[in-house]
Amino acid sequence: MTKFDEATQAIRVEEGCYDVCLDPGYAIGGPLNGGYLLAVILRAAVDASPFEHPVSTSAQFLKAPVPGPAQVRVEPLKSGRTAAFARATLVQDGVAQIESLITTATLNEAEPVYTAAPASGMPDIEDCAKLPDPKPESNMTLNAQMELLFDPPTIGWLKGAPTGSPESRAYFRMAEPQDPDPYVLALAVDSLPPVVFSAGLRGWAPTVELTWHLRALPAPGWLTLLGGGRLISGGWFDEDVEVRDSTGRLVAQCRQLARVGRG
After folding, report:
1. Mean per-residue pLDDT for 82-91?
2. What are the tens digits of pLDDT across the range 126-156?
């Protein structure tokens, strides 16, 4: 079991109720990363399902959970021959923090009938760049859990030269050697800096709603994350992320709605 597996484990205490412990190692300056929190919820939802994989997740972030004990409560809604549907709620101190609707199924290794080309190209991994290590007082502990190597123009905002478009592109893998699985993908889809940084905006950008789809089981190796947005307006922005595995296969898609950076 890896450190990430331990940090996301859900222990069944009774039917539909799981104890979890939210790990402080996945913080982004205070709040915990949304993808990490979804991975915790999905552990419980899959355990309660007759199927193996979380193929669709839609989550509303009601509050910002803090590290420490919490519970995931899973309410089955319907189960058929090929898919099951459930509501899963992350609860902390008796208060709902995240509400999610989750569809589970069992994916196979079938070759795709059709697959689109990547939304954007990426330079060779040797030509990509890391973000600087965060200052200890920043409480950006998430950075230590993963490796991200960025397409250099998309982190031009670091030196005051944003591209002017909402975009972010990077190679991703866990810092501790681990083949990607659906729970790693849940983290990966929310691991890029907010795409509004590249449009010239900064600050904590809290996610309000996030939906992601598991499209295939990833091959071992680096993941490629291709992020972009369509509209920044009235204090809101959208962010789309496409995830491809080391073979180039599309393995996950994500869209979230978030608030423009605050503070």
Report:
1. 98
2. 999 999 888 877 888 999 999 999 999 999 9
What is the Cβ-side half-sphere exposure of residue 207, based on CA atoms within 13 angstroms? 33
Amino acid at position 96, single letter: A
Q: Is the dihedral of CA 144, 150, 152, 156 positive or negative?
A: negative
36-77 tens-digit pLDDT: 999 999 999 999 999 999 999 999 999 999 999 999 999 999
Between the CA of residue 153 and those of 63, 127, 212, 230, 241, what are the distances in Å? 33, 11, 26, 18, 17
- Distance CA(238)–CA(5), nearest Å, equals 29
Distance (Å, whole) CA 59 – CA 38: 8
Cα–Cα distance measured from residue 111 to residue 133, given in angstroms and rounded to the nearest whole number: 40
Reduced 3-state DSSP string for 161-198:
CCCCCCEEEEEEEECCCCCCCHHHHHHHCCCCCCHHHH
Q: Which of 70, 74, 80 lies closest to 57, judged by CA?
A: 74
Assess contact for 195 and 239: CB atoms under 8 A. Answer: yes
β-partners of residue 223 are 172
The dihedral sign for the CA sequence 7, 146, 257, 205:
positive
Which amino acid is residue 154, in one-letter code?
T
- Maximum distance among all alpha carbons in the chain? 53
SS3 85: strand
pTM, two decimal places = 0.96
Q: Cα–Cα distance between 121 and 224 in angstroms, integer?
A: 10
- Bridge partners (DSSP) of residue 242 are 226, 253
